Amino acid sequence: MTIAIHDSNSRWRTFLEDAKEDEITSILARQLTNPVMEISFHELESFDPDFAESVIEHPETILKSGSHVLREICQERGESIFVDIRLIELPRDRRVALRDVGRDQIGMLCSTEAVITKISEIKPRIHLAKFKCESCDFIQEIEQNNERELKIPVVCPQAIGGCGSSTKSEGVRFELQMDQSRLVNNQWMEIQELPEQVPSGAQPGRGLLLIEGDQVNKHLPGERVTANVIPTVRSEVKKGKKTPLFDIIYQLVSSEQESTPFNEISINDEDIETILSISKREDLLTLMRDSIAPGIFSVGQIPLVKRSLALQLFGGVARINPDRTRLRGDIHILIMGDPGVAKSQLLQYMSKISPRGKLASGGGVSGAGLTAAAVKDAFSDGRFALEAGILPLSDRGLAAVDEFDKISTDDRKTMHPAMEQQQIYVAKGGITATLPARCSVLAAANPKKGRFSTQSSRTRSIMKHYKETDLPDALASRFDIIWMLQDEARVEDDERIAKHILSTRAKAVSEALIEEGQELSPSLEQEEMVIARGVDNKEYLTIPFLRKYIAYAKRNIHPNLDDQASTKIWEYYRDARLSSATDDRNMMNRDDNINDEKVISVTARALESLIRLTEAHSRMHLRQTATSEDADMAIAIYKHWRNEANILDEAEMHSNVSTRNRRDRGAVRGIIRNLCSESPNGITPLIDIYNDAAKMNITEEFVNDVLEKMTISGELYCPGLDKYSFVR
User: Fold this and answer.
1) CATH no. for 99-257
2) Which residues are bridge partners to 242 per DSSP?
């Protein structure tokens, strides 16, 4: 049913005066700069169903008439206020995916769920332009409905008081009166289809949104919104000529930011009942571990890695302190390993399981990369726009980053606050912004030389391996857990892995037959299943159910540590600190001047990691209170990876320089200083430095490294071959 404009005005007046009297009074009283009246579609529909349907079919005209009527009402009551109407809360039957928007939706009001990927800076746009005729000074008004073109008058209208002159015959010019024209803030926004709504193998739908008025600067890249939009078209222009093809541009009517976490995951009462039942299983942690990439054969450290990944999916509880500082709850894990140890498979599976999980490669990202960037020509206007990377787009989810060692230099600089404070700061091109990046980071790194060194691999610190990735030293301390997976030849394990791979491929279904419709995809068979069995006959939770389980836990379970759990963690921290202090005293067998560096086996940062692991274990079991049992499991996992990693001094996690390394450097410096002071000319031969260092079990290679650095810094010089002296 089509409603005429005059009828639309009368219906708006009736509705506003009958149903919105309080809101009108509030607008008149508050005198806001950009006043807006939000009207729920359901409210309008219950008042006048036919009129509400007409708004859906002709939104631009009818909403404009509604704003006009509202301004008239305000003017009648003594206030000249430019106020707009925003229609919100559209029914779900008006919801359409970006990929499905076509000719049938053009000009109609519809709703779409999307994530914001890019936002431009603000530009003012003329909505109502006033031009003055240079011949008679008559001022005429022209509405500017096209954001790409300024409409200029060609004649001074004689019928309404003008002189009748035109630009063609008399060459009259019309001057734009900026002070009398009405300008509205304007902003472009790029949105993308939600990742969970994208069909497998398809590209996510994208769209450009035009934002105006009160809605500018209300969104950030990475946010999830329900956008109520009017799709419009504009002709493509190539080589200065319009083509018969049209681009779809979306006019934003209103937007609703997501308030409930993980509401995109539908969980019914039956699902909740099943989730609660599964949570009571005694072998829940084992079941969760086996549900992580069940196709990967669990051998060596893989079961331990999977166990930690299961806890990462649930995560701890993010908290806000009274001083407004934030404590992250997300768990970050780094997996280093040789090629072929299933790192990429683990990351791929984790990104599928996690609600809002995203997978990227450090060597394959561009533009904003992992964090965020200010990019130029984003909207073909030569200006900078803010573009979100993987971390903001994974907000409240998991960001799996393969080839982490190949991340760009710009991303390396911003990864520290992105992982710890979970915020990304951008200041470039006139854009200053802070983006949320509240997500867990699961990273995989490879050695820069192809394979990790096997020299003393069982006893050397994992930080030695970390150095082979060429990642920044300080970045290691941002990870709660670091695993090292090496491809080692073990006859028994190799045989079991080979049999597992052969069995897995034998039971897998041909992709070609699935595409031809001759075979059913195994993933479809698991859509309604809760528990499945792998080729090794082990039970595991299917991906659809596991996603529901995680979403339910993260949405509803926010555990606090009880006294016993807190005591367990505190005792571990205390004992570790006391142990390191004792070890440090036992090593005081050298001169006091070179033993001023103390071994710190654990720091307060480890406490935070233990708390997060404890909360994650409690959340996995759907317990609102974390008990000593949860703390014991967290400590066991933490101690295991630290022992496997052979981290005896946490200073290595921050600088990749151990306390012993610093002591030895101090010892070499002391040796050089003593020898130079004892020499009549202040010069000492290299061989004497070697001999004194050997007595302290310091290698010649280490001595050479210290000498090189002291020479480069200008502290030492070489008066002769293999001779050194301090610069005086």
Assistant:
1) 2.40.50.140
2) 237
pLDDT in tens, 453-494: 765 555 567 777 888 888 887 788 888 888 888 776 565 655
Who's near 661: CB < 8 A, 6+ residues apart? none
Query: Six-digit token pair at 718?
Result: 């070489």
Tokens of 317: 């509880």
Distance CA 462, CA 115 (A): 38
Of 233, 215, 234, the C-alpha closest to 225 is 215
d(CA 308, CA 296): 15
Mean of per-residue pLDDT scores for the chain: 81
Beta strands in 165-223 (DSSP E): 174-176, 182-193, 206-212
- Mean pLDDT lowest for which of 63-72, 228-237, 517-526, 633-642? 517-526
Spatial separation of the C-alpha atoms in residues 684 and 719, rounded to whole Å: 10
The CA distance from 315 to 307, in Å, is: 13
Fold of 318-488: Rossmann fold (3.40.50)
Amino acid letter, residue 222: G
Q: Which of 71, 55, 61 is nearest to 13 (CA)?
A: 71
CATH 1.10.10.10 fits 5-89, yes or no: no
For the chain, which residues make up each domain, given as ranges?
Answer: 5-89, 99-257, 318-488, 560-655, 659-726
On whether the 659-726 domain is CATH 1.10.10, my answer is yes
Check: CB of residue 526 under 8 Å from CB of residue 542. yes
**Residue 709 confidence (pLDDT):** 82
Residues 6+ apart with CB under 8 A from 414: 371, 372, 424, 425
CATH number, domain 560-655: 1.10.20
Strand ranges (E), 578-687: 625-626, 684-685
Percent of the chain with pLDDT over 70: 83
- Parallel, antiparallel, or unpaired: how do β-strands 326-327 and 319-320 relate? antiparallel
Q: Output 626 or 340, whichever has higher pLDDT.
A: 626
Residue 113 pairs with which residues in a beta bridge?
Answer: 226
